[in-house]
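[SOLVED] Need 3D model of a two-part complex

Original post:
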Amino acid sequence: MVYLTRLEHFNAAHKLFNPAWSREKNEAVFGVCANENWHGHNYELFVTIKGHPDPDTGFLYDVKKLSVIIKEHVIDKLDHKNLNMDVDFMAGQLCSTENLAIGIWKQLEPHLPEQVKLHCIKLYETSRIYVEYFGE
Amino acid sequence: MNHKVAVFRKEHFNAAHRLHNPAWSEEKNNAEFGLCNNEHYHGHNYELVVKLVGVPDPATGYVMNLKDLSEIIREEVHTRFDHKNLNLDAVEFANLNPTAENIAVVIYQLLRKRIPEHLELTVRLYETKRNFVEYPA
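Solution:
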């Protein structure tokens, strides 16, 4: 089994805000991240797939094709966008890094060929904060 | 010992912004600023590097106490811009496009009045890992 990772990045605005709560409770739970006029991040996305190298090519998967799938189904929807307002697959969800990683997994998995398994979505919100999702 | 030395302090803040000229049509804004003109904003992790040049104080050995510099940056920069929308929340950009260039000049002006006059000040601002500006040039 070989693991292959493609690194992409996107810049986006968001806020952490639960519309079912009062402004006071949102500020108590989410602090400065609840700022009503948004803030933003440079996100770094690591997409890891796993499988066995093709005997004819030596490739697990053509990483250029993987990049095109990520760009079409994830980056084009997120880059220079407002995660709360502009992104169809995050509608109605809290735009935490955790939920965004799960959403990215769901965006990518249906578009990978059968012999390739998605292994991990690792998403950095800042250089000090990241989450990993393994589809469990 | 009478040698000039440069000292640096790195800080960071996260903010939303958009690049938009209200005097222009939407078409012209999109042509000039592209994705950065998104009406619902986008955002960055800004990395700020503040450089001071001077002769170390013979009594302390410091060009400046970097703990004091850190506190000045926190007061002047973080309280204004961290986890804020630069267009909507910062009076400095009410009528100024918040490009990295303009943010760097604003930060320089905010810090300059708090840094001892005999020290040279330079501000370097990273908007992304690949895009950064420096002022004064």
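Edit: Strands of chain B lie at 5-17, 42-54, 84-85, 120-126, 132-135.
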